[in-house]
Amino acid sequence: MAFQDKGDIARARKAHRFKKWKWRINERKNLWHFLSLRIFDDNLDKFKQCAITVLTEHDPKFELPSEKRYTAGIYKKTMKYSSEIRKGVAESLAFFGSYSDNLINCTDNKPENIVNSTVREILSDANWELWGSLDTILPILAEAAPKEFLKIVENTLQQTFREACRIEAGI
After folding, report:
1. What confidence tens digit (pLDDT) does each residue in 61-87 have?
2. Domain boundaries in the chain?
3. What is the model's pTM?
């Protein structure tokens, strides 16, 4: 991307930093302004697949009895993707959904459709372990696709209620 003036270069440099072997984003909206011009439909499609892979991972701590889950690290029951990666992927989905107007090189409605379908694929058939694995990320997914998220939560609650009624009735 070509920078318009020296001010653009300075803003781009201030938007992120590398310290202690970690990248940190200081000014997300500024960085988004520069990066969004380089995102195309195929990038969104690839990101969707990555997001589904990362966010549908079940936390292996749920393989342990509930009273031993706090010791998951000792038993090497840790997730493949770090909490930072998972949060970053979810926040990227939220940015795609909230600031899709900046994605001028994408087909109309493509960013919103990608975000909605990603959230739908992650949560539609989720069991309790996946919901538990997403505990800290659920608010971000709700921000990314609020209507889709609420629809899925409502459907999940209805299914759970029906199952509980069947169990109670002995059916």
Report:
1. 888 888 888 888 788 888 899 999 999
2. 39-169
3. 0.80
